[in-house]
Amino acid sequence: AHPITMAQELLDAIAAWRPVATWQSALYATAALVSGYALYEQIRFRQWKQGMEGPALAVPLIGSIVEMVKNPYAFWENQRLRNPCGISWNSICGQFMLFSTQTDVTKKIFMNNGEDSFRLFLHPSGWKILGEHNIAFKHGPSHKALRKSFLNLFTRKALGVYLGIQERLVREHLATWKLVDEPTEFRLKVRDLNLLTSQTVFIGPYLRSDEERVTFCNNYLLMTEGFLSFPIAFPGSGLWKAINARHAIVDKLVAAARESKARMAAGADPECLLDFWSQRILEEIAEAKPGDEPAEHWSDWEMGNTMMDFLFASQDASTASLTWTAAFMSERPDVLAKVQAEQKALRPNDEPLTYDMVEQLVYTRAVIKEILRFRPPAVMVPAIAMVDFPLTDTCVAPKGSLVVPSIWAACMQGFPHPEVFDPDRMGPERQEDVQYRDNFLTFGVGPHMCVGREYAINHLVAFLSLLSTTCSWTRIYTPESHTIKYLPTIYPGDCLIHLKPLQASA
Prior knowledge:
This protein is of the alpha+beta class.
């Protein structure tokens, strides 16, 4: 064809173009694609659910995300009730989910971690907020080497150093709280206590000014709020703020790691967990043979990221457990009286706590363990199936599915009368924490089991010891008091506490 003719045909085609018709076609095509995918999703879910309990029909594309966001506790409790001791299914944002309330399946998920089984997922925004290098997302040889380097962080010597810091800060905060002559939300009080305790125990002398501490605390709160925000990061959103807060925290911790290694190399005494870890890393470097590849965790950057994980993991979980401690003791004066009797026998003059003394507080420790069983702060640990993985003889977790093992369900099985709050079950006579260790999964099990278990228990024991011997308190009840909320660990709906010096109640 002649070029002029071809050009004229092109102009005629452009002139005949109808934008409305084109947009209508695009709309129809989009609707067809969405409908087709929704149908494919339903067919796929029907194949995967294998007769398990679950919704009659998953809402296409979004699943049950609306119900989960509106009332997380109600959603997960309803999911548990679908199969209280087994496996049920659902859909979250179009992703197939398996929920395990069967203890052996829950343990199986925890025990298998890697590219050939499961990778921890934690939360839809977990990787974005915590960073892909977070210890929770590691596996394999580098993860094992990292955890091995933690061995001297929780020795008796180290725990004794931490206990002195914990006691000092608890006493300081209780003294301030007793000056407020009105009920206040206890969760907010212990949150502030925990922020300062975690910072001081883990990175001690490396946050030097009040301004640095306030900034550090604010950034951690932004990270926590990010887990409760819409899972898309755009400027100004909660998730966007959380990601930027994490970067600021890691930058500070990387600098702290560098300074700590320099202090320990110069022979200074360790003052915090980071110092104990720096000592161990310097030993590993000295023990390395010529030509050995440096371990990932030797770098300041990896140390900073790991310390961020320690700080974050210790924050919400301990805050929740401290809140439940005050709540349960206000409801169980008989238990509180036994705690106080034990304290009076071992600490008649309010003596300072020592590591040996805390070990001798048998009943107080049993109370704390029962609180951790009865209300485990982290009630589930979501993971992603990296391959088609058999959970039971009849149930396979499809590759890419979300697998949610319930810690709370495991803690409420196996034990005699698990629905009863009974600290004596954890005492030396019955030792149910040992006898039913397969169910007592508050600290997890397997490659990602919590390394700070004893630190966390000591913190709670120290808090209850000092609270019970220096304060009296009354809980003010509202219609929300007996509900449970996810933040993302579990708390009482509210915990309004009126705290007084113990002598005032005599």
